[in-house]
Amino acid sequence: MKSIFENKICWVTGASSGIGKEIAIQLSNFGAKVILSARNSDSLIEIKNSLKNPEYHVTLSLDLEKSAEFPELAKQLISKFGKIDFLFNNGGLSQRSEASETALEIDRRIMEINYFGNIALSKAVLPYFQKQKSGHIIVISSIAGKFGFFLRSAYSASKHALHGFYESLALEEEKNNIHITIACPGKINTPISTNALTKSGEKHGLMDHNQETGMPVEICVNILLKAVSKNKREILIGYKEIKAVTLKRFLPKLFWKVIRKQSAV
User: Fold this and answer.
1) Residue 91 CB-density burial (10 A; 0-12 exposed, 13-18 middle, 19+ buried)
2) DSSP 115
3) 90, 214, 229, 242: which could join 187 in a potential S-S bond, CB 3.0 to 4.6 Å?
4) 128 carries an active-site annotation
């Protein structure tokens, strides 16, 4: 995989923790030049300085709720690097609340961050990809983007929306040699549940058992980067939980019987 990413310009959102942080680590080990973005500038600087050849990488503060800023941020990066090769659209927010108890403003916020913020960044980068006739957008969706689950109504909806958008974009941009990979992680050992929003918009603040016992993030990202290197359109990542996607497709009645017995946390 090293030859795929070596000396390539890779923009990673949500790079301050979890999957995004590990993407930055592994890309730097492959010789890529990484742009680390998230809201927490201090964490980004600390992570950048821990990477291999830290002088190759830059940090760029980014808030997915402020999409009006994205065209200017993309322009700044093009001015500095001349191009962007890979956009890892990883940043996002999860949820732990029942739909009936969740204020609509929370649904809107999750959709704004996970869907509109995500596609807005891709649209900011897309003109440069079209001009250079190359580029690869990696979208970190979720297994919840393939089926709904307890306590994740808005989160699941936002991930489902990403699939519709990027499957369409992939067809439209084939003529420009622009690739799309949608990754659907299952239970991965990251802090995603800790930062998930509750019904009132506060942080869940707890590490779910599903995350604690999930696939190590290093393995998850290794699988992801292999899929990217092979230009895969979609990749499921996880342990036995990803089998639920196949079960839903071929045995939907059994799927719903099984899924309702699964722990929400």
Assistant:
1) buried
2) I
3) 214
4) no
Instruction: Report d(CA 213, CA 101) in Å as an integer.
Output: 28
What is the token pair recorded at 152? Answer: 């994740």
**Residue 90, in any domain of the structure:** yes
Neighbours of 108 (CB within 10 A): 12
Alpha carbon distance 145, 142 (integer Å): 5
Which residue type is seen at 64? Answer: L
- Whether 264 maps to a domain, the answer reads no
Find the catalytic residue in 128, 155, 166, 239: 155
CATH number at residue 170: 3.40.50.720
Residues of the chain with pLDDT under 50: none
From the number of C-beta atoms within 10 Å of its C-beta (0-12, 13-18, 19+), residue 199 rates as middle
pLDDT by residue (tens digit) across 134-189? 999 999 999 999 999 999 999 999 999 999 999 999 999 999 999 999 999 999 99
**Cα dihedral 4, 8, 12, 16 sign:** positive
3-state secondary structure labels for all residues of 168-230? HHHHHHHHHCEEEEEEEECCEECHHHCCCECCCCCECCCCCHHHHCCEEHHHHHHHHHHHHHC
Q: Residue 47 is part of which domain span?
A: 2-259
